[in-house]
Each structure stands twice: as C-alpha cells, then as structure tokens.
Request: fold
Amino acid sequence: MADYAPVDLAADNLVTFELNGRTVSAPAGTMLVDAAYAAGVEIPIFCYEPRLGPPIGACRMCLVEIEGMRGLQTACSTPVTEDMVVRTNSPMAKDAQDGVLEMLLAQHPLDCPVCDKGGECPLQDRTFKFGPGKSRFIEPKRHFPKPIELSSRIALDRERCISCFRCVRFSQDVAQDGQLTMQERGARSEITTFTGDAYEARFSGNITDICPVGALTSIPYRFVARPWDITNTPSVCGSCPVGCNTELTTRDGELKRITGRDTPNVAVEEGWLCDKGRWGYDIAMSPNRLSAPVVREAVGDRTVSIEDGVAAAASLLTGRRVGILLGGAVTLEEAGIALDLATNGTLDNAVVARLGVASGNCAPVRAATGAQLGDIDAADLVVIVGGDPAAQQPIVELRVRKARRFGARVIGCGARPHALESLGDFTRTAPGHLADGMMGLADAISNAARPVVLWDEADLASDPGAIAALTALLAASPHATQLMLGADVNGVGLSALGVSTTGLFEAIAADEVDAVICVHADPLEAAGSIAWQAVFDGFRGPVIAIATYASAMTERADLVLPALTMWEQEGTLVSMTHRAQRLRPGAAGPAQAAAGWELLIAIAHHLGHPPAYRTAASAFTHTVASHPAFFGMTTDLIGTDGVVIGAWPADDVSPAAIVADPDHLVLVATRDTFGDDMTARSHALRTAVSAPVLRMHPATAQALWLNEHDHAVLISDVGSSSALPVLCDARVAEGLIVGPLGAPGSPIEGALSRNQHQAIVRVERT
Amino acid sequence: MPILNSVYRHREAGHVLTELVAYRAAGGFAAIEQSIGEMEPDDLLYVFHRSGLRGRGGAGFPMGRKASFLPKDAKLAKYVVCNADESEPGTFKDREIIEMNPFQLIEGMVLAGYAIGADRGYIYIRGEYEHQARVLDAALIAAREAGFLGDNILRSDFSYDITLYRGAGAYICGEETGLLESLEGKRGQPRLKPPFPAVAGLYSSPTLINNVETLSALPPIVTQGADWYAALGPEKSPGTKIFSVSGHVQRPGNYEVVLGETTLRELIYEHAGGLREGHQVKAVWVGGSSVPVLGAMHLDTPLDYESLNAAGTFLGSGGCIVMDDSGCIVRATLRLASFYRHESCGKCTPCREGTNWMERILQRMVDGEGRMEDLELLESLFGRISGKVLCALADGAVAPVASAIKMFREDFVAAVTDGGTPRPAPMSVVEVR
Reply:
C-alpha cells in the first residue's frame, strides 16, 4: 500500500541535502524516508505509514547513517535539513537493515507459499531486496493456533505478525474505535481487541490493507487468488456520494476483492475504505440479482435473451410518449443518453426526471468556494451543519477525526445526534431551525483561518432559512470553504446535466406519458413511494425496468432488462464534492445482462435511430459537449484521480420547508450506509448490519405511550410507514423521530414526500 | 570509606521518619521553609545546578541541567514526575527512602516543582510496592494537612500537589517515556525521542522526571548549600550515592556513601560484611543488572561515575549484586537474559526478537546443547540489538551478556564442551515465565 507520503518537489521551501553521494532536494520538514523515496532511493520501512499519524520508530527497519549524528537514525522520524549528509547504503546502515530483517524473520513462519499475502507482501519484497538471504535462527519459532477470526471478515495469523503496530494505530488514532490493542509483551506480543470480542467496526477492513505481512487478511478473499493471476483495476465506489477511489481485483472475469488504491487519492478517501465499500460487492451474487430479461405477459413471466428483451423494449416504446426515470446512482453516460434520446427524435419529447433529493435552492451555498475532502486536513475549524456524515457519508468521519487530531476545532448544529458530535461542541436544533444553530457558529467561523463547513444537502434543502443563513455566513467569512454532504450517489452529476426531480410524476398523473422506462430507479421504494404507487396504479401503459436487483418496480414492470452493477460497467459518477470520476469494470456480469448505457443505445438502434456513439467513452464525449459544467472534460483529463466539474445553472425545484412546531412530530430520514437494503443482502457484512429502528427521545416516546422495542407506524399526509421498533435515545431532540432511509422493505419511504427526507408525522403504536 | 546518611536521614536520626513530626524534628522541611516564597525559583534551580547532582536512577544525567531544559515561557502546565518504579534487579534503595523517610522525597518534589514552576507532581510507584505506596500516601496526606502541599504552600503564591500512581508491574515503565505512557493510562512503551519529556512529556506538557533518590537528595542540598554537596567526593560528579548490596555477602543492605571515597572492595568487605567463609568474589554487577559485569580484579575500583566507567562498567542505579565462586556465570547470565526477554516491551524489533534469541541460545548452552559457533553468533547479535532501538533496555540486556562472555569466556566454552553447566547447590535458578 501507500507506504511513503507524496512529496511536493515544486514547493518553495526546498532544502538540499546529500543522499548516497547525490545532491537531492525536498521540502523542509519532509521525513527522510519520503524525501529519499521521491529521489528514487528506497529506505525499507514497516511501521511507518504517514496516514496513521506521526512516526513511532518501532520496527527500526529504516536505520540510516547521518553525518554528525551518533549511531544510526530512523529515517522515518528524521526530517530533512539543509546540507544533511545521509547514507542509506553504507556498511553500517546495510548491517542494520540486514540485522533488523534477520530479527523480523527470526520468528516469522516461512509459509509464503500458502500465505495470502505472498506475492504482494512488503516483508517478502524487502527481504529479497535488503535481507540477509539466510537465517541463523535455529531455535523453535513461536506457534499459535492459526488463523483465528479477528472478526467475521478478518483473519488474524499471530505467527506472522511483526508487531509493527499499524493496525493498532489505525484503530486507536485513525478510526478511533478504540478496539485493537497489543496484548502481552516482548516476543509474546499479540494483536487482539481489548475485550477479546470480534473487531466490529465500520472501517475495520483497512487494517488488511496496511498490514505489511500476512497477519491480517480478508476472510472473503482467503485462498481465492494469487497476485500473479489477478488484474487490478482502478475504479470508484458508488455506494454513497463520497466516491472513494478503489481498486478492483479480478480473477477469471470475477470480482474477488476491493481494496484502497496503492496510490491513494488524497483529495478524496486517502486510501481508506469503509467496510461496505470494501466487502459489499458480494451482493452482485445475491439471489435477487437479475440475470436475464423478463417479459411479463398475461399468461405469466417469460425469460428471453438480451437481444429479444431489447427488441421487446423498442416495440413497447414505439409510437408512445415516453417518460424516463433515472435513479440517483445512474452514470453521466446513462443520463446523457436518456437526455439525447429525448431530444434527438428517438423518443420524441420524452420526459426525463430523476429520483433523489431536490436541492436546487441550495445553489447559493454551493456557489461559495468548494472544498475537497482532502482540504479538511488543513482546516483549523470544521463546521458540520445538519446531517449525519458518519452514517451517510462514512469516510468523511475519518477526515474530520484526522483534522481534530491535527488540532482543528469541530463544531456544528443539527437535528439528529451523530458520531462526530463527541469531537466538539454541537447544538441540537429543531428541524427547520438550523439557522438558529448557525447563529452560534458565526463568530467561530469568522475568527477561524481555514474553516470548512460541511452541510447536509437534504437537511438544508427543506430548510430555506438555513440556506439563507449559511449563504450569509460563507459570504461574511472570506477564508471559509464549503463541502456538501450529498444525498444521492450521482446527484450532483445528474443535477449538472439538468435532470430535474420533477416533471415525470406530474406527467404520468396527467396522462401525458404512455410508457415509462425506469433506469436503476425504483419509485415504489423511494421517498414518496405511496404517491408513486398511486400514479402507477392508474397507469395503463407499459413500464420497462432497467435494473440490477429485483425490487417492487421490477415486479410491477412489463419488461425487465437486467443491468450491470457499478463493479461491472464503465461510466462516470460525480461525487458530492463535484468530482467527476470513472467507474471501470472489474467483473463481467451475467451473460444476459448489459450496462444501462448499452441497453439504451441498443434500444435506440432498434427504434431506427442509431445514436452518434457506440461506447461509454463516446457517449461521455457526446454528453459533456452539451453541458456547461463539463465543458472541456475528457476521459483522459479525469484519469484515475478525477476532476472537479464546473458550475451549472440551478433550475431544480425545491421541496417544501419542514418546520418543527410543538404540536407535530418531525421525521428525519437518515440513510445509514450499514442499515440499507444493500448491506442487508451482503453475506460478508452480515455482522455489520444495523437494524432499522425509529429513534426518539425518551420523553417523546413517553408522550406517545410508547416503550422501547414497541412497534410504531408513522403517518403523514402523503402516506404511512411500516411498523418499526422504537429505540429511545436521549440525544435526539424532543419531538423528532430519526427513521432509517433505504432500509430493507423501504419501511419509512411511504411517509415521506417525493424528493424529500423529512416529513411532519403522527405516530401510532401497533 | 565514610558513610554519609544525607538521603537516608532516618539512619542518621536512628529511627524511622514516617511521622511528620519526627521528620520535622530531624530537620525536615527546613529546605521548603528556606526556599518557597523566599527564593526566586531560578535561584533554586541554580542551586541544584551548582550542586553537581547527577540523576541517581541509572543514566546519571545532571539533574540541574535536565531541569533547565524545561521551556520557561511554555503556556502548558508543567509537571514533576518522580520515578519510583524501582525495578532494576538488585536495586532497593528507593524502597527504603519511601518506607523510612517518605517526607524527604515529598520535600524534594516540592523543591523541584517550585524551581521549575510546576503545576503538579506525580509519583509513579511500582505496583509491587504496595506497603510503600501506603506509607507514601499517608505521608502525602500529612504533608497536605501541614500545608507543605496544596494551595499556597506556606502562604506563598506557590500551589502544588502530588498524586500517587501505582504501576502494574513492568520493568519498562521505569524508562522515563514508558513511565509517562503508563501514567497517561496507555500501554507502557517508550516513546520516540525527540521530543524529550522536558519539552513534551506527560500529556505533552513540559515534564521534569527524576528518580526517588535524586529528588530526595535536594533538601540537604538546599539546607547545607550547593557548595557543601559539590565538595563531597570527586569534582565532576560529587555527592552521596546509595548502593544496594545483595547476593553472596554477609550483610546485604543499603549503604549511602560519598562518591569516590569508597572502593568496591570496601563496600563488599567492610560495609556488607564480606563473603561467606572460604569464598572469593567471582562477579559483581555494580550498578544493577543492566551494566557490564566486573570481576575480582576490579575490586579496588573507587565507586564513582568516572572510575567505574574507566573499569568498563557503569554506576547505574547502584544495585550491587555480588556473586562468589560458588555461582555459575553462564547460569547467572541466562537468568539476566531471561529477565530482559520477559521485560522487553516488544515495540522495537531488535530488542523484542534479540532478547528472546539471546535467552534461547544461553538456555541451550546451560542445557548442554550449545555449539561453539553460538558464542560468535551471540557476539554478532550484540551490535544489532544495542543502540538500534528507542530506549536503553536493549543496551541493558546486552551489557551483562556481552561482558560476561568477554570476561568469563572460558566458562561459556566449558558449558559447550562439557555438555552444559552443573547446577550449583546454593543458587537456584527460577525461570521467569
């Protein structure tokens, strides 16, 4: 993994020093290991991992000779200074490297041929490069039962552990879950959790990436492939709007593993992944995966080939007024093709809309200087307005914790409690009253040198007062930057293409549409599902579902075309920080399925209007050419690291304001990444799933005559939820109910209005 | 030759000084009364500096200089930490101070705290010293009640209190940064230096950390003057030092002597009553177990820092372990190697693996499975362990093994050629596991 920190050789504070007789430069303060690596000299390391915080100098692998200093120095903890004279290959330094490797290998089992790390193991590589070649250790090695389950996803082989403390530091300092520790001491040290229980944490998988030996390995990947028969493809994660950069490991056309990249994207995830992004891919093999087109007829369902499915789609659409509904995670290419078909005469005047949060009214906030996640590192003040980033945009949590570690102050306000509140001072506000909370933040923001304001898209969209207040705050603080905590995976991309959340629902209701195509969209399981159900109940035209998994809409549709997952297809997603990034396929997918963009192009061909593009890349070029936010963008420019898109005119409508008042209860829907339908279907994540509950203050529950664990339904003026258990949490504001968005069976979506994550409700016990 | 009970005021008084009135009657707290609110803190610091007092915990770093490293303009709180984690094999001098003369340590800590402008003091006492912790706790309460601790000590502007903290049983917590980690509630492991504790110690605040004996030496220095102390013994490192004598001697115990005025022979034969009838000195670890071993030819070495260095060893903690010719140096060396293997914290690779390796090799020698090449193997390991790590534990682990092989090589060769070492009757080797 990313062992050495990137070095900016164009910085203006370069110092020049001598390295193995050469004169090289690096910015002052750069650790010698990093400076040397940037200059092409590898100083071997094991415990050093710049992302884990300050060096600890434990493994002693990086000992080098520095003129004028007594003995050898650890290059991982020695900053470069002007005129320093360093020798990494002198007899003394080489003997030390040799010695440390001999010690590391003394008790390390030589089971490389059956070790999952073999072939991509830093200990193996550095032993070849710097090691003694032969061991003089003839004593019996230490033995442990091997391996044990550190958790249901991570295997621990204690014999292989070289006590580099990386995993412990990740748990203690980066994720701050406080679970991992070293037990016993000396040669008997072993990694374990404090309590001896399984290491259950949302970022736990990162320790398998940073382990420099085969001590911590991924159980789903155990004995699945060897490094020489896999292909690694850089891609991005489409599980949430953050857009973490990933690497997909493919063997024989099948996706076998997802890891952080060797070269992390410091602007986004810095190489860390949440466990869902890492292990959730097994849902592509789950039983409700759609693998062949289905034509639904009066006599029953008929499975057909993909060619016949596309032909059937074309014939269903011919001569009809079409509506296209896009899900929140469809790619720019798919949306671009849909828009193109609607305007180029293929599907005359088709209505194109998307599912997701309407947040056009947030445009004034978005217009302020935007930040990338990486910019949070350097902030001296992190402000979190609304939202629940730890649950909804997981990796943000690690960035905020990092900033806090570096000394930033963390403040904020919001309606619901969240995991990051323990890092600083937060005020609880009633829904619709975020502006009140922001008044208390104004001084801190204007006094800070580099404040970053993280604001929740869904919360602000239904709180016009908050938009005005935050716009004013940002305008008054010239140093402040803002970062949206987005609601939909590609919400920014779709919005930038001008795809609105409205229009189609109204068109169907007004009988202005005769056929509907749902692309990765299930309105019957989305916010406002009851209203959608009502219009589809009255809709007599054909419905075509282009979808990956079975859902309410694929059951309702007249034709189902199976589509590929985000791990199997090409495409472009724009993250919540406006970063366009490329999906690249790491798996083939079922034979009778195709990418959404491919299906749309094929349908156009069948309709007799071959579009001007054939591939995802040419569809991308065609799409971006007509949208100002993407002017000048090419797939080359996006590359592996992504590119921030430009501004676009806000033409989206805004949802109704939800304002709390003493007589009503307010439902705030929160999409817990680990509580949604996708996580629930993953076998690997089975122990990480959080159960859907209605969280409320004990006083609220008491006033409703509810006890903890009682089941209750929420009823709004648009519909009602399914019954869910009550969980009392004194941190929730009184009069507020936090409900699970996207949970299996979409329990609360019925009580929400379309395109909105909040609602006024009353509660009934069941 | 002379005994000078300056730290061991209770010996001078002839009875224990665990009652505050008794300590006062023996001249105690005069140093506090003379300095707190009466002297400028910097002047007091200068007194420490001029006395030439060196740290008595083992490393021997000049106390006044260490205290002067603390930044004067720090905005953070400052702390005095007393290292009472007396775990060096053969060392039991601090134990007697705490048991018999606890107020002198408290007084010394108040003086150190005043000199550096500390906000609080901590005493980190080894977990096994349960009785001693109780004595100290009672003394702290009494000192607080008498106004020598707490707010506005002796109605001055200086407010300072001391917290007693018990360790959980790890040798490494006697290493100053390991101690600080443990005191902060973390796993006891040495920290990367710099920053040194004087700049970023306890809770990242400037911290003065000193041994019990060092801090207890301060009150007499204040009352009798830096010049008096500086005139005791050798010019470069003057003062008194307590030696804990143990092993094959007739009168094991603590002896406080003026540095440089007593030889090792005098310490063993006059103060400690000599060896058992008919036995000769085989080996002496004069400064605890972490120093190179000395043999009979070194008996006339004067006990002071410089002379012992010249003899190839260190004064260390003053834990003087004497072994007569009935003992087996190979087994004794294995016993020490086992200790360091057991106590290595495991943070640095060379120490974690190296102490284990050394023990295994020595164990094979004792068991009769040694090879001649094991001696060269051991010798090649020393340089790869010592000085390659964060703290001094590894140096301490290597010193007794390396020196024993150097000085008593024939015994190790015999262990290999004779198929092991005979178990000597009077010395039972207990495996530490």
Chain B touches chain A through 30 residues (CB under 8 Å). The radius of gyration of chain B is 22 Å. DSSP finds 19 helices and eight strands in chain B.
